[in-house]
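Title: Comparing notes on inverse folding

I've been comparing how different people in this forum approach sequence design from structure. To keep things fair, I'm posting one structure and asking everyone to reply with a full sequence. Here's the target:
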């Protein structure tokens, strides 16, 4: 029946393989394992009915996956043989059916056939136990019939070749039985047949044999030693009924507490005691202690905490190591002693993190509670805050809570926020502390007015600025924040100050625009006020004064004053005798410029002349003189075109035409009388205007001097101050601005210079610097005899100046003091100046500047000056004995009276001037005072 069932399974398997693989035929072979290599399995060609003659042509071969090398086919005769050792246990292990599936493939036509080789088991393996010796311990109190399982043997063969039975050698105490356990097969058990007696036999030696069902039978053995154990009938006993110990809670891990000791009267393992911890409430090993299981020593395992538990009642279990262990309990009490190991804890219960800066002292910022888990002095806490902060702590009566309050007014502008560190410290030894950080923001209130970056502001604006464009700006800052710091600007509109109506200010950024162009000749300086208001509620404001000085630009061309014809053109006719000598003064071209400084400094040049050898023009004075005597061949009439230009960056100019006629000496005197009367009629209105202009300028100058003297008398001496001119000064007179410096340098602000025309610091326009050339322990160097300086102060509405100059030097004052360009003195071609000599009573090392306006001299009354002031009578150049005197033309007789001269004495200059006047009258026969 078994064979029939196996065949049926095999037939079903072959049918399924044929259907799935689609193979035309199938051959099945059966062989035993362990056949010799080369043993024939069968003839595939004959079994498949293949033509042996075409077998080699059709390339017969066998394919079998991973097992293809177990078998091979001879392509010539089709015999399938063993290719290598076939081990069923290696290929199929414990499987009941072991087959090798091969595919026989031929070509022309291509065919593939299934070849199944079944490998049959042979009894080539003996039963084998895992180990040769096995020890089994059995209590002497074991009951009859007790079963003791032992590990069975293993056989790699299957079927009848596997293990079939176990046998035991003759023994009156034990027998062997087997039971089936599925895949494990038969498992052996030792059955106790009679009671054991340890005192009679301590151990029993057994031999178990496993046999298979093969032919011949193969077997395997195992030696079993049965050890009879003593009965554990005595429990351990503790040497003390109760153990007690005290330990501090900060005891480190491993601290020894005590040793539990118990004894057992049994022998061997029954007398060996093992200790373990037991707890009534929390089970095994729940306490923070460690117990040595062999010695019974109790130590600290984890950190103790007095605040969590003060007393531990521990049960120590002492048990022997018998097969049936007996045990007893030893009672241990551990008391924990408190130490200061808990820092105080701060809990914020209420917090106001935003406090206005005007909050009154005592305002509550935060409420907090303080706790310490320690006891006694270790649990008493004191809180504090840094003393430099404007906050204080107020404790409650019970000392367990505090309130944080302000102790003074806050100021957001100085401190916008506070990080307050609350420190809580207990009274333990050593003391423990903890901190809590509280962040408090200070809310801004509008308690600061806007502040300007400067007060007052001073701005310098060039004239002819573009109308509507910004000219300057003011800046104000508010120490507050948010809307309280948003600043808006406005002008104070004063009905008395009409200039503010032409100004406009940007409310957001303080930029000030001029709605019209400024004219230096009309307005030189003005003042107004700007108000800066914040956006707080209520709004706060502040104002500042703004001083504006208009800077002169070269926007006025020179105006010819003489010659002027009846129709208003700059043309004139001059008649001179033919017999005049070289150097004769023909006439003088007069002109003025409404600008100041270099913009108003005029130079004269000959633009057109009929004969360059006859006439010469002084570049600075405008005087036309003969260069040689006239001859008979010279023409009787000459045309001279004079170009007058200023010294601005972009020079402006005007021209004048002078017709010079040569007449006989007698005719010249007659013509002079007629011409003089005609000129008086024609130029009477011009003279009238000149007189009015000169008088007005003189009055303004006198008023300015009086105001300056009054200002100096009304304030204390200030050696770093400067004299400011009157705002009504029209820029036509020469005046001085005095500066002081500790570096032995002094400043002279040059002709017709007002504060409105002061150049922006950093430029060298209109500036004279005369360094102190004194040397220690050296004699002063005498200037050369030809060092002269002349300037013409011309009338006619304004006073003009011309200076002989070759280069411009710079005189600097103290730091931050305005400077003014001034031409340096140069050698003159003519002998106009006197000798250079030091002034009366002035030493070489004198550091004084003397400058004089208008008439005056040694006979003038002395002026009373404050210490450090410069008297206007004289002008001494440091390191030089020269004296500068400036005189204004009073009589209008000779133009050289307007010159600035360097000389020994004024008397020498007057004598020289009178001598020259006599010579001119003798040559011309008339008075040249108009020149």
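Reply #1:
Here's my take.
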């Amino acid at each position: 029946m078994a064979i029939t069932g196996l065949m049926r399974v095999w037939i079903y398997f072959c049918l399924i393989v044929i259907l799935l693989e689609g193979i035309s035929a199938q051959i099945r072979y059966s062989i035993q394992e362990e056949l010799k290599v080369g043993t024939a399995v069968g003839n595939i060609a004959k079994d498949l009915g293949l033509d042996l003659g075409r077998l080699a042509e059709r390339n017969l071969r066998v394919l079998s996956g991973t097992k293809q090398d177990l078998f091979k086919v001879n392509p010539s005769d089709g015999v399938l043989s063993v290719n290598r050792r076939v081990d069923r246990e290696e290929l199929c292990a414990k499987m009941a059916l072991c087959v090798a599936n091969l595919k026989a493939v031929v070509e022309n036509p291509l065919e593939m056939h299934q070849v199944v080789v079944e490998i049959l088991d042979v009894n080539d393996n003996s039963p084998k136990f895992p180990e040769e010796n096995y020890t089994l311990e059995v209590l002497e109190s074991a009951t009859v019939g007790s079963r003791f399982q032992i590990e069975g043997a293993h056989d790699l063969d299957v079927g009848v070749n596997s293990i079939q039975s176990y046998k035991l050698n003759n023994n009156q105490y034990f027998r062997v039985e087997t039971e089936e356990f599925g895949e494990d097969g038969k498992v052996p058990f030792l059955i106790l047949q009679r009671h054991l007696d340890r005192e009679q036999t301590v151990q029993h030696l057994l031999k178990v044999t496993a046999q298979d069902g093969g032919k011949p039978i193969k077997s395997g053995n195992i030696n079993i030693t049965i050890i009879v154990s003593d009965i554990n009938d005595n429990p351990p006993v503790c040497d003390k009924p109760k153990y007690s110990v005290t330990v501090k809670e900060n005891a480190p891990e491993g601290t020894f507490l005590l040793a539990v000791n118990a004894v057992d009267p049994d022998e061997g393992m029954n007398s060996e005691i093992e200790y373990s911890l037991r707890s009534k409430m929390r089970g095994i090993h729940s306490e923070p202690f460690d117990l040595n299981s062999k010695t019974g020593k109790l130590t600290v395992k984890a950190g103790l905490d007095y605040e969590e538990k003060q007393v531990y009642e521990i049960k120590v279990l002492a048990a022997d190591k018998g097969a049936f262990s007996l045990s007893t309990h030893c009672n241990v009490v551990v008391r924990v002693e408190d130490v200061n190991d808990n820092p105080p804890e701060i809990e914020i219960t209420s917090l106001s993190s935003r406090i206005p800066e005007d909050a009154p002292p005592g305002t509550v910022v935060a409420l907090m509670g303080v706790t310490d888990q320690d006891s006694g002095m270790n649990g008493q806490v004191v809180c504090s805050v840094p003393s430099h902060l404007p906050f204080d702590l107020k404790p409650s009566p019970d000392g367990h809570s505090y309130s944080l309050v302000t102790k003074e007014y806050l100021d957001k502008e100085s401190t916008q926020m506070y990080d307050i560190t609350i420190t809580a410290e207990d009274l333990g030894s050593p003391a423990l502390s903890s901190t809590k950080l509280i962040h408090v923001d200070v809310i801004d209130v509008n308690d600061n007015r806007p502040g300007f970056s400067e007060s007052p502001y001073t701005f310098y604006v060039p004239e002819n600025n573009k109308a509507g464009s910004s000219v300057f700006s003011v800046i104000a800052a508010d120490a507050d924040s948010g809307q309280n710091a948003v600043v808006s600007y406005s002008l104070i509109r004063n009905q008395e100050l009409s200039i503010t109506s032409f100004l406009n200010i940007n409310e957001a950024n303080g930029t000030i625009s001029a709605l019209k162009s400024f004219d230096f000749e009309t307005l030189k300086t003005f003042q107004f006020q700007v108000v800066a208001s914040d956006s707080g509620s209520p709004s706060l404001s502040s104002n500042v004064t703004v001083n504006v000085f208009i800077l002169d630009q070269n926007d006025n061309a020179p105006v010819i004053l003489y010659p002027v014809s009846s129709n208003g053109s700059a043309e004139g006719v001059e008649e001179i005798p033919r017999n005049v000598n070289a150097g004769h003064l023909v006439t003088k071209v007069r002109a003025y410029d409404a600008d100041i400084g270099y913009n108003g400094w005029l130079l004269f040049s000959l633009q057109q002349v009929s004969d360059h050898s006859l006439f010469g023009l002084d570049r600075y004075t405008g005087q036309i003189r003969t260069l040689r005597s006239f001859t008979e061949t010279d023409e009787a009439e000459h045309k001279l075109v004079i170009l007058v230009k200023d010294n601005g960056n972009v020079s402006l100019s005007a021209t004048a035409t002078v017709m010079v006629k040569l007449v006989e000496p007698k005719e010249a005197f007659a013509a002079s009388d007629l011409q003089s009367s005609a000129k008086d009629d024609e130029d009477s209105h011009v003279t009238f205007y000149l007189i009015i202009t000169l008088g007005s300028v003189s009055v303004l100058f006198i008023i300015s001097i009086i105001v300056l003297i009054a200002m100096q008398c009304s304030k204390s001496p200030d050696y770093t101050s400067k004299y400011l001119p009157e705002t009504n000064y029209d820029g036509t007179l020469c005046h001085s601005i005095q500066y002081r410096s500790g570096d032995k340098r002094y400043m002279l602000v040059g002709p017709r210079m007002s504060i409105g025309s002061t150049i922006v610091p950093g430029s060298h326009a209109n500036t004279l610097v005369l360094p102190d050339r004194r040397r220690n322990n050296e004699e002063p160097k005498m200037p050369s005899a030809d060092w002269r300086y002349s300037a013409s102060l011309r009338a006619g509405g304004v006073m003009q100046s011309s200076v002989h100059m070759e280069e411009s030097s710079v005189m600097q004052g103290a730091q931050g003091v305005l400077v003014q360009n001034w031409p340096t003195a140069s050698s003159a071609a003519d002998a106009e100046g006197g000798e250079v000599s030091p002034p009366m009573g002035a030493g070489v090392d004198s550091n004084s500047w003397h400058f004089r306006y208008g008439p005056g001299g040694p006979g003038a009354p002395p002026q009373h000056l404050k210490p450090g002031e410069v008297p206007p009578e004289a002008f001494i150049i440091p390191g030089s004995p020269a004296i500068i005197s400036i005189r204004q033309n009073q009589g209008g007789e000779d133009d050289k009276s307007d010159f600035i001269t360097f000389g020994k004495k004024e008397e020498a200059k007057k004598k020289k001037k009178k001598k020259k006047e006599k010579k001119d009258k003798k040559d011309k026969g008339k008075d040249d005072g108009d020149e």
